[in-house]
């Protein structure tokens, strides 16, 4: 009983902060409250004896819950007529401290813009730019590397600031790199592969992709080039969350998504995603 009371007190001391995080991510006071309540339920059934920073742990849990809710909203296409209009906060339901947190750097105009972001972009942007979480902590929440999480937040920031996500010239350059990579892979041209890979390129595969015959982690241009030499026969260039990447489909069904991070016109990171639940969360448009 004493332990439950202690957890309740600790949770209540973080509730306003968690509501603020959830509201920025969801743009809905009622959904934010649902997310916070789900965090409490997960806390109540989890052994947190080894958790040294309960506030950080709860923030991570709420972020994961909100990401799931955003992805479910996107899957249902709840906003076919345009961005969802955020719900105003009910002054009678929330404390002055909560109102202060919500008023700080967030408003209806910003929330409308946030609704145009992909779920992963929104979570990365909110956690980093509004709550100062490092990308090393954001990365596992969105299922990306720290570098890719930084890229998500950067793209979101440009949109929030009114800049284009990627100019036609940027996309053209990305497409040229991807086309060269796929051609070199299919033709077994090792040198051509090296030419489009950053010397320190990193390849990562999720557990499903590993079971399909991939390796979990490969580092270095030579090793990655050897892995892709003579392969990629079914791979096609695709827009993946607004950036040029690679998609593999079998029998008319999307099976694998390769999310690419490019630096100075070369591929610096390749993340192979084959988990069906994660694959369907990407916005993918085939380019061929």
How would you explain this protein's 3D organization?
There is one protein chain. This protein has about 290 residues and is of the alpha+beta class. The chain folds into two domains: about 1-160, Butyryl-CoA Dehydrogenase, subunit A, domain 3 (Up-down Bundle), CATH 1.20.140; about 170-285, Nuclear Transport Factor 2, Chain: A. It has 13 helices and seven strands. It has helices at about 1-25, 30-45, 55-75, 95-105, 110-115, 120-130, 135-140, 145-160, 170-185, 190-195, 205-210, 220-230, 275-280, and strands at about 195-205, 215-220, 235-240, 245-250, 255-265, 265-275, 285. A seven-stranded mixed β-sheet has the order 2-1-6-5-4-3-7, with helices on both faces. A hairpin with a 2-residue loop joins strand 3 and strand 4 (about 245-250). The protein starts with a helix and ends with a strand. Mean pLDDT is about 85; it is low at about 80-85, about 90-95 and about 95-105.
Short description:
The protein has 288 residues and is of the alpha+beta class. It contains 13 helices and seven strands.
Q: What are the defining features of this structure?
A:
single chain, 288 residues, alpha+beta, Butyryl-CoA Dehydrogenase, subunit A, domain 3, 7 strands
**What portion of residues is helical?**
40-55%
Question: For the terminal residues, how far apart are their CA atoms?
Answer: 62 Å
CATH topology assignment of the largest domain: Butyryl-CoA Dehydrogenase, subunit A, domain 3
Q: Going by CATH, what is the homologous superfamily of the largest domain?
A: PhyR, sigma-like (SL) domain
The CATH architecture classification of the largest domain is Up-down Bundle
The strand order across the widest sheet is 2-1-6-5-4-3-7
CATH class of the largest domain: Mainly Alpha
Spans with pLDDT under 50 lasting ≥5 residues? Answer: 78-86, 88-94, 96-106
Number of helices: 13
Give the domain tally: 2
Largest sheet: 7 strands, mixed
Task: Give the rounded overall mean pLDDT.
Answer: 83
| Share of β-strand residues | 15-25%
